[in-house]
Amino acid sequence: MFKILSGIFLLSGIVGVISLLLAIFNFIKLDRIKAIKMLKFTGISIFILGLSALSASEFLPESYKVSQEESPNEKHEEKPVAKVKSTEDATWQGKVKEVASFNSTPSKKFDTIEAYAKKYPATKAEIKEFEDYIVAEYKNKKYLADVQNNEYMLGNIFKAYVVNRYYGEEETPINDFVFGFYQNSNYTFKGLESINSNAIKYNERQMDKALTAIEN
């Protein structure tokens, strides 16, 4: 309907202009009768033009009406800003704490932290820090003192895995020592071995040999 009325509006405008021009032309030629007739046509065209304009406004698209009704100064609702994770959540300590809080078995927690350790981009400074920590925890006999402490055990497993991954297949005293630390932490945390089992004690004897080589 809007398109039809627009067409009538346009046609009426054209007819009105032509009629007005003809009326002026006839006045110039002193043919007043024809001029008056042309003026009547012009008046009718203007009348139709006005009606078409009024009718067309009733059929304007809704989107156009809405855009016209909106105030240019109208304040739009601000979109919520995404929360940025804290620095703590982005650290390995934050990851260990997160995994430790999971409501899952020790084996699943172990798998999760190991998968994270496989991709962790450790620096040389961190490798040295982890090595010193692992040696100290073993020497003070603390590393298996509380195997039920998820956060502590997962932290130890993470550090040992990262150090072993750094050295790869390299056979060095520190790598051998850390691997024994990793195995004992892994087995006792998952409940596969008790802290006084033969397997754990055997690993500790091998670790003692590696530790002697490290310190000499």
UniProtKB/TrEMBL annotation:
Mind telling me which residue stretches traverse the membrane in this protein?
A: 6-27, 39-60
Keyword Membrane (UniProt): yes
Listed A to Z, the keywords are: Membrane, Transmembrane, Transmembrane helix
Record protein name field = Uncharacterized protein
Query: In which organism is this protein found?
Result: Lysinibacillus xylanilyticus
